[in-house]
Amino acid sequence: MNVALISLLALVAAVLLSGFRRVNIGIIALGFAWVIGHYIAGQPIAFLLESFPLNLAAMLFGVSFLFGIAEQNGSLRRITYRVMRLVRGRAALMPLVFFVLAALLSTSGAGNIATVAVLAPMAMATAGEMRINALLMSIMLANGANAGTFSPIAPTGIIANSLIQQIGVEMQPWTQVYLPTLLAQTFVALVSYGVFGGIALWRHHEGDGEGAAGSHAIEPITAANVMTLLCIAIFIVGVVFFKADAAFLTISLAILLCILGMGDQEAAVKAAPWNTILMVCGVSVLIAVLQATGGLDLFTSLLARVSTLATVTGVIALAAALLSVYSSSSGVVMPAFIPLIPGLIAQLGGGSPVALVSSINVGSHLVDVSPLSTLGALCIANAPPGEDRDRLFRRLLYYGLSMSLVSALVCWFFFGVLLGG
Asked: How many CA atoms lie less than 13 Å away from 112 in the CB half-sphere?
């Protein structure tokens, strides 16, 4: 059998096995990479070791380590409550407030999962107190977190930019990776806001309630909170303006907080997304084997057969979304699809890397509102008392699955028609 086909089937098998068995796809991918790359394709073990993205793993750990401390010592929670108190009046504003809060927090470096973990208890409690549709609040919270998650200082943005660099494409992290995804996610969120009850909320006067933030005592800001927020500010300024290494800077700042007794190192290390880090690194090694054996070219050819220059953004978004329904968006889908871009452009005779990357990013993340993803699951777990969680589960599942088609249409229009991708 053709080695290229064997390597491609190994990737498919890894995805399917991880879906039916509770085994990290990164571990499966590493095993397949070793067997196929070394014993079938004849690649030296040094090739496999060099393909392991150690720098990416260090950056993901460092950012998660720092924000894990910020979550543990209450710094993020205290700031969020104070921002919420500034918004008084109609309940219709609250889903929009949580969308903006989630986007800002995710952009600052927390990323989508940490952001929803921090905000979901407050968001869902506010929905219960102010009689806001729990589905609407979940949609706005998850989409807000995903809208900011491609920031170059957030874990998902770090993954995306690392993959883009590996394929030799030059893209501006803020304007060509972060901004298109932010705009597309915001568009879908605002349409969803209108469709799922946001407009109806404006028709009902809710007095001057402040929701969960206003009905409970606000915790005082401590010295640990001030120092933690200062460290986060140093991280953002250092990476954005001074091009400091994100991995070593965040780890150093986190260690400083631990030395000062302002963070629990052991708990923060345990809370780091080790499963995601292993997924990204393991799949990256297998993708390197696919590239060396021609499996990546074969996958690209299959996509090119069902695409044209006019439809490729919608097709690749749909494919990324369908795969993302039952696998990790940043750990599996992005490492599998972004390396296809140069070959796909060559086979189609043109195309925009920005449009294709944006389509993969949006397609893989719009479906993450589904309860099968961490974001949707966190919203259900924090549903207010009296909420029918089974009904909320079904509605989020239907919404998430429908985003596969929505992402195809949105990416086709935004990145294909408007950008001429």
From this structure: 31
